[in-house]
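In this supplementary section we document a worked example of the pipeline. Step one takes a protein sequence of length 163 as its only input; no multiple sequence alignment statistics are reported here. Step two produces a three-dimensional model, which step three serialises into structure tokens for compact storage. The input and output of this example are shown verbatim.
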Amino acid sequence: MGSPADIDQQGRQPAVVFEEAVVSRGCLHDRLHTYATAAPALRTTARRLHQEVDVSDNAIQPALLHHDLQPGHLLRELTGSRLLIDWELATFGDPRSDLARLAVRLDLDDPTPVRALASRRAPTAESRLHLYWRIHLLADATLSTDRAVRERAARRLLGIGVA
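The serialised model returned by step three reads:
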């Protein structure tokens, strides 16, 4: 750990936050490259999202992500307890990514309604949520084994002017 002067107001070392941002950005770039390779017709979309990742605020505090948040993984027991199942894709990252995935799975035309589920709202939260939403749409458009899901995601990307 660095000297007390190296610690910010939240008790984090700025170098650690920077390293997390670099890792996050690199991971997103890797995913976008995979999608572009899987569907050459969507390379322009992947390139635009890649550029948006580069200019966006990538300083995040990673949290545990489900990474496949969707209604089918949310259960309620008879006692009223709520459960989130199917954690095999869990990873650490930006919680807005899980919210964006949920918006894609709910087939929303805009991810903004899921922001109400966020525990805290950063000034850049909405733009970052939209970025993740488009990345998840691109993932579905390129890698889904269900043709209807691929086509719906591609249409949505075209409809928002990203493809």
